[in-house]
Specification:
By secondary structure, this protein is α/β, with parallel strands linked by helices. Helices cover 45% and strands 13% of the residues. Strand 5, helix 6 and strand 6 form a beta-alpha-beta unit.
């Protein structure tokens, strides 16, 4: 389009992640190619926003011709609708709506059901916990829409059919329900293999839910010291953490308190302020440059 070539137009781009470039096997060929095309199209005059320090470093490693000053980090946030829900009736209603048995403790994972989210390892961690703790009534709730390349998840569910009744797949979760769903959970587990930011762990922390999370890519930036971090394939470590949280009210409370404090460090208003200030500064610099060029 003609505006794209107009020097008067300020160009800005928000980069969520480079997973499609770094790990194209997690996507369709078309989707991976589109991500690469977009990353290749960024110009030196573009104001670029990255949603984490990790995404910024990935972008600059892939595009070393871009200036570090050109890329500004804008951390995301959970938003005000993610908060502790202490209404037991609301929690019960959400359980009923999504097929979660009343009264049983459950581990929650929220993600599109796709290969990158590593949900097969989450299932294995629950199974390991159950097989070592005969009296445990812990369930696993996988909340999210089905995505792509689900062979590994299907296979692990079939392999551990003995425990299939302990695993609930909710499908799509409606907008008003996540806080109650998070708050009713014993803990939240997120073993994704790659993230540009990782909103679900932050949402869980904002609801006061203890977090078990993988220690890769951007996730340590989000969780900090407020959750338990593991290698994405450390099934036994995650199983032990499930056991610890489910049997120790003190550990659960400690992680819940730390998570709430951590979540408060992120806000959409801060995100908006960073973007506004960066664009205003870029616009002012562009005007100064034009004046000098005319002079």
């Amino acid at each position: 389009p003609s505006w794209a070539m107009d020097d008067e137009v300020l160009h800005a781009h928000l980069v969520y992640d480079l997973v499609g470039v770094r790990n194209p096997e997690y996507f369709s060929a078309e989707a991976a190619a589109e991500v690469k095309r977009i990353m290749d199209s960024l110009e030196p005059r573009t104001s670029v926003f990255a949603i984490s320090e990790f995404t910024k470093s990935e972008l600059l490693a892939y595009r070393p011709d871009l200036s570090e000053k050109q890329v500004t980090v804008v951390p995301l946030a959970a938003g005000p609708r993610f908060r502790p829900c202490e209404d037991l009736d609301e929690q019960a209603a959400v359980r009923s709506k999504y097929g979660i048995p009343q009264g049983v403790p459950y581990v929650l994972s929220v993600a599109t059901l796709e290969v990158r989210k590593n949900l097969d390892q989450v299932v294995r961690a629950l199974v390991s916990h159950l097989e070592r703790n005969a009296d445990s009534d812990l369930h696993l709730v996988l909340a999210g829409m089905s995505g792509w390349k689900l062979e590994q998840l299907r296979q692990v569910l079939a392999t551990h059919a003995r425990w299939r009744h302990r695993i609930v797949l909710t499908g799509f979760v409606e907008e008003d329900d996540p806080s109650a769903l998070y708050s009713a959970a014993t803990c939240f587990v997120y073993l994704s293999r790659a993230e540009g930011f990782g909103l679900p762990p932050l949402e869980a922390m904002a609801c006061g839910t203890p977090v078990i999370c993988s220690d890769n890519t951007s996730l340590p930036e989000v969780v900090g010291n407020a959750g338990l971090l593991f290698d994405a394939d450390d099934v036994e470590g995650v199983a032990n953490a499930m056991q610890q949280i489910s049997t120790s009210p003190a550990v659960r409370q400690q992680l819940a308190t730390a998570g709430l404090a951590r979540a408060q460090q992120f806000s959409w208003s801060r995100c908006a302020d960073i973007i506004t200030e960066t664009l205003l500064a870029a616009h002012a610099a562009r005007r100064v440059g034009r004046v000098r060029a005319v002079a």
